[in-house]
Fold:
Amino acid sequence: MIAQHLPILQVVLPLLAAPICMFIRHPRVVWMWAFVTAWLCLPMSVGLLLKVLEQGTIVYNLGGWAAPWGIEYRIDILNSFVLIIVSMIGAIVLPFARRSVEREIPQKRIYLFYTMLLLCLAGLLGMTITGDAFNLFVFLEISSLSTYVLISFGKDRRALTAAYRYLIVGTIGATFYIIGVGLLYMATGSLNIADLAVLIPNIGGNRTVQSGMAFLIIGLALKAALFPMHMWLPNAYTYAPSVVSIFLSATATKVAVYAFIRVVFSIFGDVNILEILPVRNMLMVLAIAAMVIGSAAALYQTDVRRLFAYSSIAQIGYIILGISFDSVTGVTAGVVHLFNHALMKGGLFMVLGLLAYQIGSTKIQDIAGLGERMPLTMAALVIGGLGLIGMPLTAGFISKWYLIQAAIDIGLWPIAFIIVLSSILTVVYVWRIVEVIYFHRPVNPINDIDRAPISMVAPMWILIGATIFFGINTNATLEIAGAAAKALLAGGV
Structure:
């Protein structure tokens, strides 16, 4: 009986758990409540993925009202895969959060932090699972509003500026998105994504529909931090509390990209907007700019957290590039990189969270010589960096290999070369970190380094270890991503 209602329980559980934190208030008890909630969401996501693989797409009508009159949750192989990403990161982040949050957040505000974290988790899961374009906007706002508050919890006063900047940009993005939804509703009379996919091909040349498409794409591009609409991201990741940087870097932009994919291939899939309008070339150019400029900007950063924030912009470029190829291999590369980048960047920001906990800094000059004093943590940093480069036996290699293959398959050899060039830039900034931690002497030696709690070290190594595991054992992720790509390109909703 419960199995039938997993789609709604996936969202309702963290959504109801969040306000309960306001009543609990005790820091340790609130953390335990959030921990249990997150770990209940993970098996639900796994169960939904297994059910989809066994039975095909799951349709869940809220309140028994069939679409398009009612809100529909539609779970297919793509969004069940993204559900795994979000719930897995949420579950792994919570053990890490206890000690990190106690160190970085005032005790009297910890219950507010976990309230917002659970709301953000609920919003991201809701964005992923819903089959209704307006309902997606509702969950987008739930996740965004909670994210603004989470970023503002940072100890540095610049966290408030970062949160405010994200608030402005996020509001613009959400406004663009809802205008796009309104225009589609005006043209079709429907908000259901599956229904829109059927109705739009009959009126594809309608200017209202085309305008709606433009608003949707720009709004979601702002949320996904696609270059040049990325300016909110570096400060948000740099000045937010460590746990927030981990969670957002591994999930928030991934879900926004998922929504972007859903708009392009589901709502407008049958009219093939990547070919009819100059969307494909535009996305390709922006993705390449993100890859090169994001990697180049990372070279000049003096804070490792900010460096990896710019790296995230480049990695989003890889995902969007795969989508712009509009081929099974390209979309497979983009979808699998959603998963792989979540592992790599989540693990790397956990390393930085440990640095913030143990030495109180993530400045490059302050990590000099730590390779000897913190060998396990620095080894995790190196492995995560190798994943970003795309070295063989890491998850990042699979993504880039498929991207290069997709570019060659459609005769775009120069783009294959640019992918390699961007990877070389990644080698440079990763080597810069490796050189500092292993070959430089500390400028200001740190006498007392706090012992790393196992509750923080274990989650870090789970994600870093997964980067290696899924770089060697690629069958599961590639099969799921490949099946999702084939369904999207065949017009699957």
About this structure: The longest helix spans residues 158-188. The beta strands are 58-61, 72-75.
